[in-house]
C-alpha cells in the first residue's frame, strides 16, 4: 500500500516531535521531510531561538530531510506567508499531500493553518489535538522524550526556567497559570532525545539572553560527548545536559 506523503511542521520542540512520534507509530503517512522557519538574521529556529546546528542534528536523528524556510527579523506577515506559500507549492510539486502539526488546543491557530492550506492540495493533520495537556506532558516524559526549555515568555514565567529540562520536576514547579505544555506561548522547548530519534543529541546550556520580553537559553551541541547509540537514546540511560 502506498502511503500519502507528509511533511512535519518542525519547530524543534516537544509538540512537533511527539506529533511525529504518534504519526510514525500509527504508520498512516510516509513522512518525507521537516519544514522549519529559520530567522536568517540569527541563524536560529524562529520563535524557539534554537541554533541551526541543533536543528540539523534533530533532523538527522529523525531521519528527515530538512526543508528550511528562511525569514528576516523582524518579519512582516506578508513576507512570512509568501515564503511559506513557496515552500507549500514546492511540497505539492514533490507529491506531498499532508502537513502534520503539533498544535494542542488553540482553535484560532488551527483555523489559520486550515485556511492557508485550503485549496493548495495539502491537508493539515493534528495528531495531538485536544489531548489534555497535563496528561500529554507526562506521557511525553514517560515515552523517553527529553527536552530543554529554550524560550520563556517573561510576562508568564521567571527567567530561571530558561534552560531547564522538561521533566516531572519542572511540571511540579510551573506557575499555576502556566499550561503544562506551554501551549499558550509560556515557553518553548528544544528536543534532544526520544522515541522519534535514532540517537540522543548531546547539548550543553549556555548563557541566557533577554530580548523583546523573552528569555532565551543558548543551547549548544556538546562536542565533548559522542552521540548515544540508538538503544541508549531510547532507554534514556544517559543524561548529558
Please outline what is shown here.
By secondary structure, this protein is of the alpha/beta class.
Q: What does this protein look like?
A:
The chain is an alpha/beta fold and 241 residues long. The protein has one domain: 3-Layer(aba) Sandwich (Rossmann fold), CATH 3.40.50.620. Strands 1, 2, 3, 4, 5 and 6 form a six-stranded mixed beta sheet that branches. Strands 8-7-10-9 form a four-stranded antiparallel beta sheet, covered by helices on one side. The protein is globular, with a radius of gyration of 17 Å. The N and C termini lie far apart (42 Å). The C terminus is likely disordered.
Overall average pLDDT: 93
Work out the helicity level.
Answer: 25-40%
Strand % is 25-35%
Please tell me what the overall shape is: globular
Low-confidence stretches: 227-241
**What's the architecture, going by CATH?**
3-Layer(aba) Sandwich
The biggest beta sheet reads: 6 strands, mixed
Per DSSP E runs of 2 or more residues, the count of β-strands stands at: 10
What's the level 1 CATH class?
Alpha Beta
Per DSSP, the total helix count is 7
**What do we call the CATH topology?**
Rossmann fold
Q: Work out the count of structural domains.
A: 1
The CATH homologous superfamily corresponds to HUPs
Distance between the termini: 42 Å
What class would the helix/strand composition place it in? alpha/beta
**Topology pattern, helix = H, strand = E:** EHEEHEHEHEHEHEEEH
Radius of gyration: 17 Å
Amino acid at each position: 500500500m502506498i502511503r500519502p506523503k507528509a511533511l512535519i511542521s518542525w519547530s524543534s520542540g516537544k509538540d512537533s516531535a511527539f506529533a511525529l512520534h504518534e504519526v510514525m507509530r500509527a504508520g498512516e503517512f510516509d513522512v518525507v521531510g521537516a519544514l522549519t522557519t529559520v530567522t536568517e538574521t540569527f541563524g536560529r529556529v524562529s520563535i524557539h531561538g534554537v541554533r541551526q546546528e541543533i536543528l540539523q542534528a534533530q533532523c538527522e536523528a529523525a531521519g528527515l530531510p530538512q526543508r528550511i524556510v528562511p525569514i528576516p527579523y523582524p518579519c512582516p506577515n506578508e513576507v512570512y506567508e509568501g515564503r511559506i506559500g513557496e515552500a507549500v507549492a514546492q511540497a505539492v510539486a514533490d507529491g506531498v499531500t499532508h502537513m502534520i502539526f503539533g498544535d494542542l488546543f488553540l482553535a484560532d491557530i488551527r483555523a489559520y493553518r486550515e485556511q492557508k492550506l485550503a485549496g493548495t492540495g495539502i491537508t493539515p493533520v493534528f495528531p495531538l489535538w485536544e489531548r489534555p495537556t497535563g496528561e500529554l506532558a507526562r506521557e511525553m516524559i514517560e515515552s523517553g522524550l527529553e527536552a530543554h526549555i529554550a524560550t520563556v515568555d517573561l510576562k508568564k514565567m521567571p527567567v530561571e526556567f530558561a534552560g531547564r529540562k522538561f521533566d516531572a520536576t519542572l511540571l511540579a514547579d510551573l506557575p499555576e497559570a502556566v499550561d503544562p505544555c506551554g501551549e499558550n506561548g509560556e515557553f518553548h522547548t528544544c528536543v534532544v532525545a526520544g522515541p522519534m530519534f535514532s540517537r540522543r543529541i548531546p547539548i550543553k546550556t549556555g548563557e541566557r539572553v533577554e530580548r523583546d520580553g523573552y528569555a532565551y537559553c543558548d543551547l549548544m551541541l556538546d562536542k565533548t560527548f559522542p552521540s548515544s547509540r540508538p538503544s541508549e537514546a531510547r532507554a534514556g540511560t544517559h543524561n548529558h545536559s
